[in-house]
Write a structure and sequence with these properties.
2 copies of one chain form a homodimer.
Chain A (H helix, E strand, L loop, with lengths): L6 H4 L3 H12 L4 H6 L5 H13 L3 E6 L2 E6 L5 H30 L3
Antiparallel strand pairs in A: 1-2
The structure holds a DNA duplex.
Chain lengths: 108, 108
DNA sequence: AATTTGCGCAATCAAATAGTTGCGTTTAAA
DNA sequence: TTTAAACGCAACTATTTGATTGCGCAAATT
């Protein structure tokens, strides 16, 4: 398995989903984030690293602290995919409609 | 990590996302699905197993063939989460708006 | 009846993940 | 200046994942 770094990978983990939610409110440091969970700082740090690689999060150094900002725009990738899916599904139902329509026409 | 079986896990893999897309058009057998990719039947079968456990897909036995149907409803779980996220984000901007509003009021 | 086809299942393997522990570095506080 | 806090990074472990191979069973085909 090649290491994938995309939004879908990012949100696959429940802790990361929680971190994303946390960061919607505002930028936080790894310690601040870890305080909200039962996770250790290092564990959070690893997730932040992945989220950074997925470009869902940016770092901002402030003195000895690093503030992690959410890049909410990246979440649109999920929306885009969902939209594609829904369009395909709609088309499928259109086809079904066509079939049903034809059945109606052929009725005696 | 306890094995999670949720929609987020299901869509984390690109092959599984492709399978989901394929199944929007209609139910297919593992072999039929495998024909659309460079994946082997067994590899596809494993993904189908996961998708089944995630309840994104249902099996329907027809003789010696098994047709895999998409349970499109399950995809709403993703939408729900995205919606939650967007609401949180909106609230954040509301707060920002309040702050900006106050800054304006304090202007000379 | 013999063969082929479609499939699940188990065993196996390499790579990735999630997590921990233990550094070292830089910045801030005493 | 010494000490403490906030990190990143590397090493290490257990667990999961994605994929392959080979087997066996049941349903079609011949």
């Amino acid at each position: 398995m090649k290491t994938r770094r995309d939004v879908f990978q990012a949100i696959a983990d429940p802790t990361r989903r929680a971190i994303i939610m946390l960061l919607t409110v505002g930028a936080l440091t790894p310690n601040a984030i870890a305080d909200h969970f039962n996770s250790s700082r290092q564990a959070v740090s690893k997730h932040l690293q992945i989220l950074t690689e997925c470009e869902i999060v940016n770092q901002e150094q402030q003195g000895r602290e690093i503030h992690y900002h959410l890049n909410a725009d990246k979440m649109k990738d999920i929306e885009k995919w969902l939209e594609q899916f829904k369009q395909l599904l709609a088309k499928r139902f259109e086809q079904l409609d066509t079939v049903l329509e034809q059945l109606k026409l052929n009725r005696p």
